[in-house]
Amino acid sequence: MLRQLTAGESHGRGLIAILEGLPAGLKIDPVRINQELKRRQSGFGRGKRMEIENDRVQIISGLKKGVTIASPIALLIQNKDRGIEKLNKVLSPRPGHADLAGLLKYGFSDCREVLERASARSTASTVSIGAVCKIFLENFKVKISSQVLLIGGESDSALIKDRINEAFIKKDTLGGIFEVVIKGAAAGLGSYVQPDRRLDSRLAAGIMSIPGVKGMDIGLGFGFAEEFGSLLHDEIFYSKTKGFHRFTNNAGGIEGGISNGEDIVIRACMKPIATLMDPLNSVNIITKKTASASVQRSDVCVVEAAGVVAESVCAYVLADAILEKFGGDCLGDIKASYSSYLKRIK
Ligand code: EPS
Q1: So what's the pLDDT on residue 51?
Q2: pLDDT value for 328
Q3: Residue 322 alpha carbon to ligand 1 centre in Å
Q4: Average pLDDT per run of 10 along the chain, which is 346 residues long?
Q5: According to the model, what pLDDT value does residue 103 have?
Q6: Rounded distance between C-alpha atoms, residue 181 and residue 179, angstroms
Q7: I want to staple 98 with a disulfide (CB 3.0 to 4.6 A). Which of 118, 168, 192, 295 is the partner?
Q8: Residue 169: CB partners within 8 Å, gap ≥ 6?
Q9: Does residue 55 sit in helix, strand or coil?
């Protein structure tokens, strides 16, 4: 089973991630991790910080000659913008941000202490872990992708660009909906036997952990509220070449908390970035008087990047579910167990 822990502040020295539980014998090419980090940094609507950073991973432990030796993998991403000690105080919490709730919770007198860790910069660590998990999943032919479905009410890519430009000019921000598709997951991952073993509850926890995500669904999701069950459930078929299969996938690849062999389809909604260049009203935490919310350098829209982060959390959950089901401390054992299982269920 996998475990992970991340550390790091947005303008501290860097970000650290530790991933434990991967088997021995997995070749990890840091170039692959860097490609994912670059994807996270891009997307229309990104702000000035992304012009400063060029996120690159250093693998500190867990590999010998580029191959896992079953010990914890430590991943370091250094920050280029690392002036945490010199940054201004943030005294007017931003509506929609962790600023005020975090300040009250921890007894701070400066929201800076909150936003440094609450910043979505931490998702670089998430993506570094997810990239390693994606490499593991390739051994089981599992592929994960994402796409933007809607931003600020628009679905057409040209109109989305216009909308983001409009937000930029108006000193505003935009949220949207992205979709993650997991292809190649065998039937039987996750379980109904305990709530925390359900594949859907584990994916939901991962997706909802992404900063700014306010809702998610699987397959038809909220659409299941619209029609009779006879019209919505996916009928089951069997053929020698395909095995058990369906021609529809309203379930989104999960039934009873278990993968059913179809694509796993997740949609999630991200709220607009909380930092507005034309700020909303807030309250100064010292004087308790009305004040404009603090303005920090930020992005206009990060829905595309959130999709990359979502791929990463899904990769972690899928890798964990495969390790749980097929066990083994060396990659070869897990692959042998996996292929004999595939023969049995065909
Ligand atoms: C981010 C880094 C941050 C922000 C953004 C995402 O850098 P900075 O605060 O120095 O501009 O651009 O963070 C937020 C939107 C947020 O609310 O914290 C990143 O690396 O993704």
Answers
A1: 92
A2: 82
A3: 33
A4: 97 97 98 98 92 96 98 98 91 98 98 97 98 98 98 97 97 98 98 98 98 98 98 97 94 98 98 97 98 94 98 98 95 97 94
A5: 98
A6: 7
A7: 118
A8: none
A9: coil
Query: Helices 303-326 and 123-138, interaxial angle, to 10°?
Result: 50
pTM metric for this prediction: 0.97
Q: Report the nearest atom of ligand 1 relative to the CA of 49.
A: 11
CB-based contact 50:41 (threshold 8 Å): yes
Q: Is 47 in the pocket of ligand 1 (CB under 6 A)?
A: yes
* DSSP secondary structure string for all residues of 159-187: HHHHHHHHHHHTT----EEEEEEEE-PPT
- Distance between Cα 284 and ligand 1 center (Å): 22
The rounded Cα 38 to chain-centroid distance in angstroms is: 15
The predicted pLDDT at position 346 comes to 87
Domain ranges of the chain: 3-345
Phi, psi torsion values for 218, nearest 5 degrees: -120, 130
Identify the residue whose tokens are 């919490």.
93
Q: Taking a C-beta distance cutoff of 8 angstroms, is the pair 172, 276 a contact?
A: yes
Residue whose C-alpha is closest to residue 177's, from 220, 216, 206, 145: 216
Following CA atoms 309, 310, 315, 318 in sequence, which dihedral angle do they give, to the nearest 10 degrees? 160
Residue 216 C-alpha to ligand 1 middle, in angstroms?
22
Q: Does domain 3-345 have CATH number 3.60.150.10?
A: yes
